[in-house]
Write a structure and sequence with these properties.
The protein folds into three domains: about 60 residues; about 190 residues, 2-enoyl-CoA Hydratase, Chain A, domain 1, CATH 3.90.226.10; about 70 residues, no CATH class. Helix content is about 55%, strand content about 15%. A seven-stranded mixed β-sheet has the order 1-10-2-3-4-6-9, with helices on both faces. The longest helix has about 35 residues. The C terminus is likely disordered.
């Protein structure tokens, strides 16, 4: 009887947990719906002064390592320098500004949604004496998607705003298409750069379908509307046309790099290969070997650094679905873990 009662109470607790999660979901949905009308639909933009972060780190280390008197002397000098900076800014003689953008690329270059607004915001305030630094990480992806991302950075070049691309890990293929737009490319010693090529691959199950007596009909209007297919029988003519399209995309890629980095020997580097930072510098794919941390830290000594990040606002429906799915999954997990609990 005691064991039955224990199991019953455990089951009741699990059901209560799920019901509580559902009530939270309903309450959250109601809150989101109520606030959706008040939202203006604008993207969320955040601007953070990175100099403050560096000062905080330096202060923590100095306070821990210096004696009380030397630390007070340093702190006083630091406050005096900060006051002088603020006074100069008020007088209209502000220091050079570095606007720091981040781009973390996936195959669809989906981060371009935020990048385009970040570039627009910077162009509204940047001066010719300022600089934009893009911390770029991407292995590449769709040609048209990365073409748009590179074009967003080209807007800065067209307005004569100095642009630096800093690569800590990888800027390959479409990622390098973006990096080459910069006036200066800085890379960590073992960052991967290059991969100036185009690739396409597609499975074909025509023979498998044919073996099992499955017909596949494909209707097109236009001689080259479809070249290679997954289900139909591919022809040599279709393969030839697909190869021509790849070659054309590769030629456009090379022309783009030649426009922004004419010092690069395309016959040597436009082979689809990639190189680590040290080798990439020798080939002209980058100009300097440094990490983004080192580049920004040194720049902070003579300039004001501002990190600009724009997060595109998700549609209400997408937010509701994501939130509800997360909570329901959590409730199911609680029940599942409870059902797996050992019984005496």
């Amino acid at each position: 009887m005691r064991e039955f009662l224990s199991q019953y109470l455990l089951f009741f607790a699990q059901i209560a947990t799920v019901l509580a999660a559902l009530l939270i979901v309903i309450g959250r949905l109601a809150w989101l719906a109520r606030n959706a009308a008040a939202a203006d639909g604008a993207d969320r933009i955040r601007v953070r002064r990175l100099n403050d972060r560096f000062r905080t780190l330096e202060r923590a280390v100095r306070e821990a390592t210096l004696a009380k008197k030397p630390f007070k002397a340093w702190h006083k000098a630091d406050q005096k320098a900060e006051a002088a900076r603020l006074a100069a800014e008020s007088a209209g003689t502000a220091r050079k500004r570095l606007y720091v953008l981040d781009f973390r690329g996936d195959i669809r270059a989906s981060a371009v949604a935020g990048l385009r607004d970040e570039v627009t915001a910077v162009l509204a305030v940047a001066r010719a004496t300022d600089e934009v630094v893009v911390r770029l990480e991407s292995p590449g992806g769709l040609v048209h998607a990365y073409g748009l991302a590179a074009s967003q950075l080209a807007r800065l070049r067209e307005r004569s705003i100095p642009l630096t691309a800093v690569v800590d890990k990888v800027a390959a293929s479409g990622g390098y298409m973006m990096a080459c737009v910069a006036d200066k490319v800085v890379a960590a010693p073992f960052a991967v750069l290059g991969s100036i090529g185009v690739v396409a691959q597609i499975p074909n199950v025509h023979r498998l379908l044919e073996k099992h007596g499955v017909d596949f009909e494909l209707l097109t209007a236009g001689e080259h509307k479809r070249t290679l297919t997954v289900f139909g029988e591919n022809t040599d003519k279709g393969r030839q046309k697909a190869q021509e399209e790849l070659d054309d995309a590769h030629a456009l890629f090379k022309d783009f790099i030649a426009q922004y980095r004419p010092q690069v020997d395309l016959a040597r580097v436009a082979t689809g290969e990639h190189w680590y930072g040290v080798r990439a510098r020798d080939l002209g794919l980058c100009d300097e070997l440094r990490t983004s941390d080192d580049y920004l830290l040194e720049a902070s000594r003579g300039a004001d650094l501002f990190e600009v990040k724009c997060t595109p606002k998700q549609a209400l429906g997408n937010r509701l679905v994501a939130f509800a799915a997360a909570l329901v999954e959590a409730g199911i997990d609680v029940v599942a873990r409870g059902s797996r609990a050992p019984a005496n």
